[in-house]
Amino acid sequence: MKCVSFAALCGLGLVAATPALAACDTSRDVVIAARTPQVDLYDAADGKRVLTMDKDKFPACTPIQDRASNLMLKVTVNGTAYWVPPHMVNYHFNGKTAAVCRNLALGSNEARTGATRGLGEGCPKPKAPSP
Questions:
Q1: What 8-state DSSP symbol labels residue 124?
Q2: Which of 31, 34, 90, 93 has CB atoms 3.0–4.6 Å from 55's, for a disulfide?
Q3: Per-domain boundaries in the chain
Q4: Phi and psi of 28, rounded to 5°?
Q5: What is the CATH number of domain 26-117?
Q6: What is the pTM of this model?
Q7: What's the rounded Cα separation, in Å, for the pair 99 and 121?
Q8: Which tens digits make up the pLDDT trace of 79-131?
Q9: Is 46 left (phi over 0), alpha (psi -120 to 50) or beta?
Q10: What is the residue-wise DSSP string for 19-41?
């Protein structure tokens, strides 16, 4: 029986995943391909579903035009702008992602520990309350 190293197995997985990403222009934010069997498209970031598209019909390497605070991604499909939930697609962000601005545990925007690490970075500093 031939022994295969863990690195060789991981290499096989990476080779299978890279052609789709390599075919896309990763110098900008891009939706690589659909992840789920069907992709729901919305009329606004917090709007209603207007279209459901099968995975094989969803265009690959679609540029992301905007990102909403609720993480929805704005893309153009067949000449029409739609918003797509990020869990339904594989995507690639080039550069820094948007800051997550909200109060952290205990009402402090300063403490960053555990799961809250990184939250609040790049956000405006809160004003001190007036006495």
A1: P
A2: 34
A3: 26-117
A4: -140, 170
A5: 2.30.30
A6: 0.61
A7: 6
A8: 999 999 999 999 998 876 666 666 555 555 555 555 555 666 667 676 766 66
A9: alpha
A10: HHHHHS-TTS-EEEEE-SSEEEE
